[in-house]
Amino acid sequence: MAKTSPARTCPVAAFQKMISGKYKLRIVWDLKDGPRRYGEIRSGLLRGAEGSAEITPRVLSRELKALTMSGLIDRKDFGEVPPKVEYRLTRKGKSFVPVVAAIREWGERNLGEPVLTEAAE
Amino acid sequence: MAKTSPARTCPVAAFQKMISGKYKLRIVWDLKDGPRRYGEIRSGLLRGAEGSAEITPRVLSRELKALTMSGLIDRKDFGEVPPKVEYRLTRKGKSFVPVVAAIREWGERNLGEPVLTEAAE
DNA sequence: CAGCATCCTGCGTGATACTG
DNA sequence: CAGTATCACGCAGGATGCTG
């Protein structure tokens, strides 16, 4: 459906869809320091979260696959046993890091504290 | 800082939670130009989306309430009939606009095109 | 006009178990 | 180690109808 439709799927909506999922953003952030293996990502996510119990392989796998299909990360399978797979940011993924950084920065400044609504209530 | 704060609810996770919902980001973006009435927001969201059919009052209402409770927007009820309610960004909400801007900018640059996964790297 | 009440459905996510 | 398969469930979110 090429369509002539000029209505460009609202970038924000597309973004929402791309990062939908509880771990995608954190995975990207985790990979900014370099390639990581499946298990490392998993452990990393666990360390970062105090609330999450465990990330099931099914979920993590899905997130990674989605990120790969979004073109943010790249999967490198070393083949052979024992299995070794590394995930790394693509160029697109790297270009996305600053955005995540902005999000984190803002979040740290405004979400760390218990919502101090300056005039609310 | 109450708590020992070793595991600070990951800002990214908090962010995700805050903007969870299909319209929150777009509502914030819409309000950056100034206060808007309920109906205006609704129409605005419809214009911006080519895919969304209609936003049900139930959903929009919920999003607005959530944003209000997050401290991003402020609800001003003019009372009296006919009902007139305006929503506007709080200081916190305004500080969030640049982040959304970054998201949009990145999205426009990278999500408008059909994912050209650069094989090379 | 700006909502709320009710019903219904798909999907994201967690738990558990198994495999190459 | 790095996944896949199956089951189950909560909840976001759409449809409809009603109200102050």
From TrEMBL, chains A, B:
Q: What InterPro entries does this protein map onto?
A: HTH_HxlR, WH-like_DNA-bd_sf, WH_DNA-bd_sf
* SUPFAM superfamilies found in the cross-reference section: Winged helix' DNA-binding domain
Tell me where in this chain the HTH hxlR-type domain is found: 10-115
Sorted alphabetically, the keyword list is: DNA-binding, Transcription, Transcription regulation
Q: Which domain of life is it from?
A: Bacteria
GO molecular function terms attached to this record: DNA binding
For this entry, the protein name equals HxlR family transcriptional regulator
